Amino acid sequence: MSALVQRISRFLRSPQGQKIVDRGRREMAKPETQRKLKQLASRLSTRR
After folding, report:
1. Which of 21, 2, 24 is nearest to 11 (CA)?
2. Backbone region of residue 12 per phi and psi (left: phi > 0; alpha: psi in -120 to 50; beta: other values)
3. Per its UniProt entry, which superkingdom is the organism in (predicted)?
4. What pLDDT was estimated at residue 6?
5. Residue 48's pLDDT is what?
6. Calpha distance 39→15 (Å, rounded)
7. How many domains does the chain have?
8. How many CB atoms are closer than 10 A to CB 33?
9. What tens digit of pLDDT does each residue of 4-48 get?
């Protein structure tokens, strides 16, 4: 399992990985995305 974690870590440090991380941060900063995630979390928590 640690080999997989190492591969993911290497990818995230690469230029392509950094591009994906930056895009994710920008998306998470949007209020619309945060609202959708809160709705999803509340739906998932009420199912249990």
Report:
1. 21
2. alpha
3. Bacteria
4. 96
5. 61
6. 33
7. 1
8. 13
9. 999 999 999 999 999 999 999 999 999 999 999 999 999 999 876
Structure tokens at 14: 């690469």
How far apart are the C-alpha atoms of 13 and 7, rounded to whole Å? Answer: 10
Residue range(s) defining the domain that contains residue 8: 2-47
Rg over CA atoms, the chain: 15
Find the angle CA(16)-CA(13)-CA(1) to the nearest 5 degrees: 110
Q: Which residues contact 17 (CB under 8 A, 6 or more apart)?
A: 11
If you search the block for the tokens 């809160």, which residue do you land on?
38
Length of the chain: 48
